[in-house]
TrEMBL record:
Xref: Gene3D superfamilies: Vaccinia Virus protein VP39 (3.40.50.150), Winged helix-like DNA-binding domain superfamily/Winged helix DNA-binding domain (1.10.10.10)
Gene Ontology MF terms in the entry: acetylserotonin O-methyltransferase activity; protein dimerization activity
Organism: Callithrix jacchus
Alphabetical GO biological process terms: lipid metabolic process; melatonin biosynthetic process; methylation
UniProt protein name: Acetylserotonin O-methyltransferase
Residue span, O-methyltransferase C-terminal domain: 118-317
Family annotation (InterPro entries): COMT-like (IPR016461), COMT_C (IPR001077), COMT_dimerisation (IPR012967), SAM-dependent_MTases_sf (IPR029063), WH-like_DNA-bd_sf (IPR036388), WH_DNA-bd_sf (IPR036390)
Catalytic residue positions: H257 (proton acceptor)
Amino acid sequence: MSSSEDHCYRLLTDYANGFMVSQVLFVACELGVFDLLAEAPGPLAVAAAVGASSHAMECLLDSCVSLKLLKLEMRGGQDEDMAFYGNTEMSRVYLSRVSPTSQCSMLLYMARTTYHCWGHLAQAVREGKNQYLRTFGVPAEELFTAIYSRSEGEQVQFMQALWEVWSMHGRSVLTVFDLSLFPLVCDLGGGAGALAKQCRCLYPRCHITVFDLPEVVRTAEEHFSLSEEEQIGFQEGDFFKDRLLEADLYILARILHDWVDGKCSQLLERVYQSCKPGERWGPLLMQLYSLNMLVQTEGQERTPSHYHALLSSAGFRDFQFKKTGVIYYAIVARK
Ligand SMILES: C[S@@+](CC[C@H](N)C(=O)[O-])C[C@H]1O[C@@H](n2cnc3c(N)ncnc32)[C@H](O)[C@@H]1O
């Protein structure tokens, strides 16, 4: 076998075995291995705690060692060496439930829901549609009603899973633009309020309301009780049917990817109708400078979207607008 054939075969084997790696991770989370090992170091203790076979548990823990999810130390016992397993940095930070950056609920959601749906990938490709009904026997015309109707526990876990991702990425997403210009914020389909909570921390002067389905708002209030000081409002409703509250900024985090184009357009049109016109009023300095232009020239100061329209109609594309921190904005557009 040539070295390139050898490489291809290894790659093929890695691809084929990929599901086993995911399963080891999922099952170790499901059995609470990472939390138990923080307290009890050996395979026997962990197996006993979850009522599992000690031999099988040892195999699982050894696989976790190879995947760097656990570390292993052999210590001398009375008659023979004893295996002591412990959490690695990765499992301590992401796989222990007590860690503020724990991803356990996301992994459990993937194990109990996503993984099973992937089992029907061939049918999904043939039919070009999701496999929720085939996987769980629940019709998915209304996808979220289907997810939430499985059980209250599943609903809490799904919401917790969505929350966990923002513990990792919320700050980066919320600081890529300066949102301090938007006093009233509505997080549409904001779930339990994970992103809203971070938005309040980063922009303490904004007033933020999470808008979501009634069952989600009830579960958020019951299981994710955000403290009074966090000052996050919740409003129940269906964003396709009910009146949206007026806001300067709407957050649609991981919302549009759930829907076909027609429904995305429907939702965006509703958001457009409710959105307060913002930049036309602009900061005071811009109004004064516009008056300054009025009294001296035939021109005016313009908003970024006004410049965008002018540049696009001249044929420019890739419009980029940036605040500079001083009184002038900078705009670049390409031919
Ligand atoms: C994929 S989750 C995203 C949640 C949150 N934005 C995040 O990024 O973590 C989609 C959210 O939209 C909500 N949702 C789905 N259909 C809705 C509807 N018709 N009206 C209001 N909220 C809806 C779901 O309950 C869920 O919280």
